[in-house]
Amino acid sequence: MLKSCYKDIFEAGTDEAGRGCLAGPVTAAAIILPKGFKNPILNDSKQLSEIKREFLRPILEKASVTFGVCHVFEDEIDEINILNASILAMHRALKMMTQPPSFILVDGNRFKPYENIGHECIVKGDSKFMSIAAASVLAKTHRDAYMEKIHEEFPMYNWKQNKGYPTKEHREAIKLHGLTKYHRKSFRQLPEQLTLDI
C-alpha cells in the first residue's frame, strides 16, 4: 500500500527514467498530488504494464496540484555523467512546477539540495510513496513517447520497443550501423568495446 504523505501536503515526489539506457535522454518528473489523492492502480512504474502507465498519465497530470517533466539529453549526460544528469533533470522538473514544494521526496539514495527546500532520499520510494510512484509514471511515459518519436528517424535500432535500453537487439544494431547522435558516447555501448584486436 502506497503512503499518500510523508511530511505535509505540498511535498513533491520526484523520480527519473532512462538512467541505464544507451541512447536517448534521462527524463525526470516531479509532481505534487492533492491531499487525499488515491488511485488503486498507481504503483512503481516498473511494476505496471505499458497500458496501465499510459492510462494513468492523463489522470495524474489532471489531478496534480502541479507537475514538471524534463529531459536531459545525450551531450549533457556525456559532459557531466549520468548521476549528475539524473539529479539535474529532477531539479529542472521541480523548477517547471507552478508552485514550489515545501518538501521533496526523492526516489533513490542520491540527490543535491534544491533551493534550500528540505528533501528525503528514499530507496525504492516509488513502491512506498504515491507522489514518487506518480513521478515515476510521468517520467517513464514521457521518455517512452520521446523514444518512439526518434525511432521514426532510426528504425533499425527498434527504440519503439527497447526504448534505448541495452538489449541484445540494440547492441547488435550498434554493431551493424554504428552510433547515432542520440547515443551516449560516454557509455560502454558494446561489451567488447574496451578490448583490442591484437
TrEMBL record:
<feature type="binding site">
    <location>
        <position position="16"/>
    </location>
    <ligand>
        <name>a divalent metal cation</name>
    </ligand>
</feature>
<dbReference type="Pfam" id="PF01351">
    <property type="entry name" value="RNase_HII"/>
</dbReference>
<feature type="binding site">
    <location>
        <position position="107"/>
    </location>
    <ligand>
        <name>a divalent metal cation</name>
    </ligand>
</feature>
<dbReference type="GO" id="GO:0006298">
    <property type="term" value="P:mismatch repair"/>
</dbReference>
<comment type="similarity">
    <text>Belongs to the RNase HII family.</text>
</comment>
<keyword id="KW-0479">Metal-binding</keyword>
<dbReference type="GO" id="GO:0004523">
    <property type="term" value="F:RNA-DNA hybrid ribonuclease activity"/>
</dbReference>
<dbReference type="GO" id="GO:0032299">
    <property type="term" value="C:ribonuclease H2 complex"/>
</dbReference>
<dbReference type="InterPro" id="IPR036397">
    <property type="entry name" value="RNaseH_sf"/>
</dbReference>
<feature type="binding site">
    <location>
        <position position="15"/>
    </location>
    <ligand>
        <name>a divalent metal cation</name>
    </ligand>
</feature>
<keyword id="KW-0540">Nuclease</keyword>
<dbReference type="GO" id="GO:0043137">
    <property type="term" value="P:DNA replication, removal of RNA primer"/>
</dbReference>
<dbReference type="GO" id="GO:0030145">
    <property type="term" value="F:manganese ion binding"/>
</dbReference>
<comment type="function">
    <text>Endonuclease that specifically degrades the RNA of RNA-DNA hybrids.</text>
</comment>
<keyword id="KW-0378">Hydrolase</keyword>
<feature type="domain" description="RNase H type-2">
    <location>
        <begin position="9"/>
        <end position="198"/>
    </location>
</feature>
<dbReference type="InterPro" id="IPR024567">
    <property type="entry name" value="RNase_HII/HIII_dom"/>
</dbReference>
<dbReference type="InterPro" id="IPR022898">
    <property type="entry name" value="RNase_HII"/>
</dbReference>
<keyword id="KW-0255">Endonuclease</keyword>
<dbReference type="InterPro" id="IPR001352">
    <property type="entry name" value="RNase_HII/HIII"/>
</dbReference>
<dbReference type="GO" id="GO:0005737">
    <property type="term" value="C:cytoplasm"/>
</dbReference>
<protein>
    <recommendedName>
        <fullName>Ribonuclease HII</fullName>
        <ecNumber>3.1.26.4</ecNumber>
    </recommendedName>
</protein>
<keyword id="KW-0963">Cytoplasm</keyword>
<dbReference type="GO" id="GO:0003723">
    <property type="term" value="F:RNA binding"/>
</dbReference>
<keyword id="KW-0464">Manganese</keyword>
<dbReference type="InterPro" id="IPR012337">
    <property type="entry name" value="RNaseH-like_sf"/>
</dbReference>
